[in-house]
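User: ok so my PI wants both of these folded by tonight, can you help

Assistant: No problem, let's get them done. Here's the first:
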Amino acid sequence: MTKLTQIFSAIISNLILFSLPLFGSDPSVVSQLDLARYQGQWFEIARFQNPFQNESEKNITARYRLLDNGFIEVINACKQTNGKVKSVTGLAKQQSSKSTSKLKVSFFDIFGWRPIWGDYWVLYIDTDYQVAVIGDRNKKYGWVLSRKTTLSQRQRDTALAVLNKNGYNSQKLLFAIHD
């Protein structure tokens, strides 16, 4: 093998190796999400570390409300480490007409223009709409939500299994505190 062939082979090998995550399968989402049943208040049970919740200490909630224009109002609130309650309002929309389970959400608004939208994919929802598991296409962000501040052991096991099945490492979850 010539030196040039070795270099070319190494470059191709590295390109394949570092491209593998790009070709991984998308997380599985629920087949149909009833947005009317999904609206209302949810408590964050657990999440993966992310840059937009660094100061979230406890009592983390998300409230969803369907709007007449087809968007969903999203109000996230938490008690920060300094003791103050902070909330942020955003909008969610269906990512495509093919799936109600794949949403996009934006909390960044410039005079009504929202240039940044993030994935909000519903990976799991129980039949009573009491527990939900949320993720994104890249398996970087994820949340476990509940209508109550705690989960039963069965609900917790199910949520962790959904995350693990979709390529998340559930051992890296940060569990929320509610008082």
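One down. Here's the second:
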Amino acid sequence: MKKIYHFIAQRGILLCIISLALIAGCIISEFDEYKIVLNNDGKSGIIYIAKYNIQSDQKDPGKQQEDFDNLIHNWKSDEYLLDKMNNGIYVKSRKLFIERGRLVWKEKAIFSDIYKLFQNNICHDTLRICLSKDETVTSTNGILIKTRDSTIVQWPLSMKKFVLKTQKNNFITNSDFVKKFERYLHLKKRLRQIGE
């Protein structure tokens, strides 16, 4: 399994482990947005994910490049899609682009059973997500329960729509994925022109 799969799947689609660091602490995002909308059957639905200001938390330029290469690979690879399917998720679209000077990942996916997808986070028809203390909830339609070391967000499944936006506290990075992505796009364009 590639690192970006952990980045999006563990931190995004599988919100039940949202408190884990992105890609084992290598890739981070400053702002995250999640929206789940259940269908009329109360089980299947669609999930939207957005990650803003994607960077590496590595100081070594070589490791930053490795993180970036993994990000690109999973943006373009079928392996990412197959890994998601193995976890009960069908990715309908995924985008990586620059918006307002930040690198952004957006994904839209469908799933067949929220109870299987979040089996460890649903209790008595309530979905509960635990956030670590280094994240702040900026917006949600759920109920917030603050503890000394974390914040729990919970929603009754009868709501059918679950929204969560978070911000990473003290976001600092040495990487510049925007410049790397601009160089990547420029190189791809040049290669296409040569091939024509």
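Helices lie at 3-13, 61-76, 78-86, 114-117, 177-195. Residues 1-25 have pLDDT under 50 and may be disordered. Good luck tonight!
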